[in-house]
C-alpha cells in the first residue's frame, strides 16, 4: 500500500540551522522523501557544502541567514517565498549554548543565547507565519530540549530560551489554528553533535547518560527525522501546540539504582 498519510513529498521546507547536526539530518530526511529543502545558517560556504552532500531527489538550496539579525530573517522569508512561491513547513533548528555557572553570565552572553534561540525563532516564525496565514496552510516545528522537562544545571540562559520556545509553540498554535497553521515542537534528548561532542567524550558523562536513559544510549541526529516528518505531514493533522519528547525516555521519570 502506498500510504500518503506520512508524505512530505513536494513540500517546500525551510530549515534554519540546516548546515550541521540535527538541522542537517532533518534537511536530508525531508530531501530524501521528495521535499524541496532550503537550509539556512550563518556561512554560505558551509551551507553550500552541506547542500551538495545531502541533495536528494530534489536539490537542496542554501541561503545565508543569521537569525540574530532581524533584517536577515525578513530577507530569508522573502527570498524563499520568491523562489518557491510558498513555504509549507518551517523547522526552527538554529541554536547555540553556553555552559557556565549562572552567577558568571555577562549580559552579552545572555543576549547571545536568547537572541538566536528565542528571538530569532520568534521572528522567523512570525515572518513565515504571515505567509502561511495568507495561504491558510502551513506547519512550524520548533526544536526545544530536555530543558522543557526540567532545567539542566550549567545552562540556565539556554534553559530560559528553550522554555520560551515552548511558550512560542503553544502561543502561536493558539493564535494560528484558525488559519490552518499548526505549530508543534520536538524536544530532543541527549544527541551527539558538534554542540555536545566534548561533553559526551567524558566517560563520567557517558556512564551517567546510560544510567539515566531508559533506552541506555545517546541519541543520533537521525533519531529525530521520524518525529519531524510526522509533524510536517497529514499524520499529525489534528495536532498543534504540542512538544514531542524524543529522548530515549529520559523525561518519562527518574531511574534509580535499586535492584528489583
Ligand atoms: P550544532 O552546533 O551541531 O548545529 C547548530 C546549527 O545552528 C548549525 O547549523 C548552525 O549553523 C546553526 N546556527 C547557530 N547559530 C545560528 C545563527 N545565529 N543563525 C543561523 N543559524 C545558526 O547543534 P545541534 O545540531 O546539536 O543543535 C541544533 C538544535 O537542537 C539547537 O536548537 C539545540 O539547542 C537543539 N538541541 C540539541 C541537542 C543535542 O543534544 N545536540 C539536544 C536538544 C536540543 P552555522 O554555525 O553554520 O551558522
Largest sheet: 7 strands, parallel
Structural class by SSE content: alpha/beta
Bound compounds, each kind once, are: NADPH dihydro-nicotinamide-adenine-dinucleotide phosphate
Strand content: 5-15%
Q: Note the run of SSEs as H and E.
A: EHEHEHEHEHEHHHE
Any idea what the radius of gyration is?
A: 18 Å
The stretches of 5 or more residues where confidence is low (pLDDT under 50) are none
- What's the number of extended β-strand segments? 7
Helix count, DSSP H or I runs of 4 or more residues: 8
* Shape descriptor: globular
By CATH, the architecture is named 3-Layer(aba) Sandwich
Description:
The chain has helices at 21-32, 44-54, 70-84, 107-135, 156-176, 197-200, 203-212, 225-232, and strands at residues 12-16, 36-41, 61-64, 89-92, 138-143, 181-188, 243-246. It has a seven-stranded parallel β-sheet with strand order 3-2-1-4-5-6-7, sandwiched between helices. The protein is built from eight helices and seven strands, in the order E-H-E-H-E-H-E-H-E-H-E-H-H-H-E. Helix 2 (44-54) links the parallel strand 2 and strand 3. The model has no long low-confidence stretch (mean pLDDT 97). The N and C termini lie far apart (44 Å). The chain is globular, with a radius of gyration of 18 Å. With 260 residues, it is an alpha/beta fold. It has a single domain, classed as Rossmann fold (3-Layer(aba) Sandwich), CATH 3.40.50. It binds NADPH dihydro-nicotinamide-adenine-dinucleotide phosphate.
Amino acid at each position: 500500500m502506498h500510504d500518503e498519510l506520512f508524505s512530505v513529498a513536494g513540500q517546500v521546507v525551510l530549515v534554519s540551522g540546516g548546515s550541521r547536526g540535527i538541522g542537517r539530518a532533518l534537511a536530508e530526511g525531508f530531501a530524501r522523501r521528495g521535499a524541496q529543502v532550503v537550509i539556512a545558517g550563518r556561512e554560505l560556504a558551509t551551507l553550500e557544502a552541506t547542500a551538495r552532500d545531502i541533495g536528494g531527489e530534489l536539490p537542496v538550496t542554501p541561503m545565508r541567514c543569521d537569525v540574530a539579525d532581524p533584517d536577515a530573517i525578513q530577507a530569508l522569508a522573502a527570498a524563499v517565498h520568491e523562489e518557491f512561491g510558498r513555504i509549507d513547513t518551517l523547522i526552527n533548528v538554529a541554536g547555540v549554548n553556553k555552559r557556565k555557572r549562572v552567577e558568571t553570565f555577562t549580559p552579552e552572553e545572555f543576549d547571545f543565547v536568547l537572541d538566536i534561540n528565542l528571538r530569532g525563532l520568534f521572528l522567523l516564525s512570525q515572518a513565515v507565519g504571515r505567509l502561511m496565514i495568507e495561504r491558510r496552510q502551513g506547519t512550524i516545528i520548533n526544536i526545544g530540549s530536555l530543558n522543557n522537562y526540567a532545567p539542566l544545571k550549567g545552562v540556565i540562559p539556554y534553559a530560559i530560551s528553550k522554555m520560551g520556545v515552548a511558550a512560542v509553540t503553544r502561543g502561536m498554535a493558539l493564535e494560528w489554528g484558525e488559519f490552518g497553521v499548526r505549530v508543534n515542537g520536538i524536544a530532543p534528548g541527549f544527541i551527539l553533535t558538534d554542540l555536545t561532542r566534548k561533553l559526551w567524550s567524558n566517560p563520567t558523562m557517558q556512564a551517567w547518560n546510560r544510567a539515566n536513559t531508559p533506552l541506555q544510549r545517546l541519541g543520533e541526529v537521525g533519531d529525530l527525522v521520524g518525529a519531524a516528518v510526522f509533524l510536517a505531514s497529514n499524520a499529525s493533522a489534528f495536532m498543534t501546540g504540542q512538544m514531542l519528547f524524543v529522548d530515549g525516555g529520559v523525561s518519562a521519570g527518574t531511574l534509580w539504582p535499586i535492584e528489583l
